Amino acid sequence: MKTKKHQLAAKIYLYLAALFITSLVVSNLIFQKFFFWYPFDSELFGIRLFELSVGILPYPLTFLITDLISEIYGKKAANRVVIAGIFASFFSMGILLLADFVPAIENSPVDDMTFKKVFSLSPLAVLASMIAYLIAQFIDIRIYHYWKKLTKGKLLWIRNNFSTFVSQFLDTFSVILLLSLFGILPWDLFFGLVLSGFVFKVIVAALDTPLLYIFVWLFRKKFDLEIGEEISLWTYDKRK
CB atoms < 10 A from the CB of 228, how many? Predict the structure, then answer.
């Protein structure tokens, strides 16, 4: 029989998965709007930094969540969330294609041209994002657990940052490359967007490290976990 702690652990996992999937899907829907991050008006190698897509704003949260799930629930649980995110993204792409295909009525507040302008590129963005996302997330989880095993569950900041830095670079480079190849983004923005996106994600990853420490501490205290122990959602055993 499931204990109350097992039920609570499963509920929290469900909420984390929901946050992860929402962040992933929304980032693909809003990517066409760009902004400039004013506090960091700078150049590097002649490239102006921090001209970013708004789609980048929720995306770093996905890596924080997978690192948290990896730490508390294990590698398999993190991979399940990633796969669920893939399914949700492709499902959203199908809905967008269907919505674009259905003609708007005369009195529709949003006409066909406006809808197409905002959402017509989203399916291609989803495809590009999913390819990059697959590469980045599975590498992030693999590197995270490599460092976790190597450090015997200690030095959380190392596995959090090293896994995120590598995976975020691969993700940023891959998605900008694919969007440029698909003709969605002009090539003259390529290096600026890659550099800006990666630097932004590195800054966010460094800033979210204290949050990961806080959440991991709360989980360990609530579920009586020792360093290196994980919760199995299916049997609620604690395993090394």
Answer: 15
Give the total residue count for the chain: 240
pLDDT in tens, 148-182: 777 777 777 777 777 777 877 887 888 788 778 87
Q: What tens digit of pLDDT does each residue of 86-140 get?
A: 888 888 888 888 888 889 998 888 888 888 877 776 666 667 777 777 777 778 7
How does the average pLDDT of the chain come out, rounded?
79
pLDDT over 70 at 43, yes or no:
no
Is 174 within 8 Å of 132 (Cβ atoms)?
A: yes
Nearest-Å Rg of the Cα atoms of the chain is: 20
Contact 24, 133 (CB under 8 A): yes
- The residue type found at 37 is W
The residue among 190, 35, 32 whose CA lies nearest residue 120 is: 32
DSSP helix/strand/coil, 183: coil
- Exposure class string for 80-100: b at 16+ Cβ within 10 A, else e: bbbeebbebbeebbeebeeee
CB atoms within 10 A of CB 116: 12
Whole-angstrom distance, CA of residue 173 vs CA of residue 110:
34
Look up residue 12 and give its two tokens.
């929290």
**Percent of the residues in the chain that have a pLDDT greater than 70, as a whole number:** 88
Q: In this predicted structure, what is the pLDDT of residue 236?
A: 46
User: Are residues 155 and 228 in contact, defined by beta-carbon separation less than 8 angstroms?
Assistant: no
* Angstrom distance (rounded) from CA 24 to CA 42: 28
Residue 38 CB coordination number (10 Å):
7
CB 168 within 8 A of CB 201: yes
